[in-house]
Specification:
Blueprint (H helix, E strand, L loop, with lengths): L1 H16 L5 E2 H8 L3 H13 L3 E6 L2 E6 L1
Antiparallel strand pairs: 1-3, 2-3
Length: 66
């Protein structure tokens, strides 16, 4: 069950980032209305699949599609 939820969260995150130059985790959270646990579950899925890259920008996690 958690695996399907991770995929669902990843899809929401992907949609939020698609068409942008990238977003901070805070911006993604606001756009998707995900709680921290679900946000990081989805980000982990996308990282594992090499679909996103992350970096630390001024103390914020910045995420972009690869």
């Amino acid at each position: 069950m958690l695996k399907s939820k991770a995929g669902e969260m990843a899809g929401k995150i992907w949609i939020a980032i698609d068409g942008t130059d990238g977003l901070t985790a805070k911006q993604i959270k606001k756009a998707t209305k995900l709680v921290d646990k679900d946000l990081f579950l989805g980000l982990g899925w996308l990282l594992r699949e090499d679909k996103i890259s992350t970096e630390d920008v001024e103390g914020e996690v910045f995420v972009r599609l690869v």
